């Protein structure tokens, strides 16, 4: 690890000033310290943001709930009101990594975590994401990679919270150039879709302040499949959220994670589900639509049937039948 300065900040203005071009925000440190130790990034200053006031709270508004970016994944998992109001968010949080990691991992750090591609994580491999010439995964070991991508990098977004936040239509409030900017989850990752160098749309000084979740969708569910039951990222994750009125779905949203550089939503599937009574045939057709354009690689074709099954099961879970 290269040497760096360390500063604890108490205001967002100091945080931005200190992080500048070459510093890095430090929250729980689960991802950042690994990146530094493996020489994947270097930072001249680590800016400890955990003392920033007001960002560690979950607030329950009438129409919108606010989750501060320093709220830990365990806080979400253990919040009884979240479990009741956004069961899918509780399930996604409870599936992250391990209890020890959830205790310190923050919402901001979870959303901004870097690629898990093993070529990217290898300090001696200079792939496209590290300004090299080649994506080694494309014709190499691509078991954990994307079924969809907008550029030559096939590393997927692996934040479980991003998957459920997308289905809940949550908005990230980001401090950019001193102003609060609202970003949908699609916007938060759009740059990773377009640009192989990007992990998300944030610049070095952009600071996620909080996430706002509208209370419009009263039902939500989340499922993931992983190699290991704990201490592992999802091979595929799926989140669904909706309201059910008169037995019919209203404004449903289905999202897949770990299969694209952005949380994957297909508008045609959401529109198809809208106004339908949920049954196995409906859920199956939605899954067909969501995966219609998937482009599996040599080692990750197993993700297609896995995602198909997860979509069906997550949707049926909204009715409480799985
Ligand atoms: C074995 C293992 C299994 C895992 N499984 C899962 C899983 O299933 N699902 C999942 O979602 N995650 C999983 N994780 C990842 C883990 O959840 C993340 O590493 C963690 O959430 C990062 O949060 P942190 O607060 O520790 O971030 P840090 O490591 O402190 O920061 C991560 C990145 O985010 C930036 N950052 C931090 N806070 C902000 C902010 N407020 N605004 C802007 N940028 C910020 C940092 O500069 C850094 O680049 C796993 C991790 C491990 C080690
Ligand atoms: S998938 Fe992306 S991160 Fe992985 S080797 Fe290819 S370019 Fe690098």
Describe this structure in words.
The structure is a single chain. The chain is an alpha+beta fold and 322 residues long. It has two domains: 1-53, Uridine Diphospho-n-acetylenolpyruvylglucosamine Reductase, domain 2, CATH 3.30.43; 58-112 and 155-317, Enolase-like, domain 1 (2-Layer Sandwich). 32% of the residues lie in helices and 20% in strands. It is built from 13 helices and eleven strands. A five-stranded antiparallel β-sheet has the order 4-5-8-6-7. Strands 1-3-2 form a three-stranded parallel β-sheet, covered by helices on one side. A three-stranded antiparallel β-sheet has the order 9-10-11, with helices on both faces. Helix 5 packs antiparallel against helix 9 and helix 11 (267-273) runs antiparallel to helix 12. The N and C termini lie far apart (47 Å). The mean pLDDT is 97. The protein binds flavin-adenine dinucleotide (FAD) and iron/sulfur cluster (SF4). Flavin-adenine dinucleotide binds next to strand 2, helix 6, helix 7, helix 9 and strand 8.
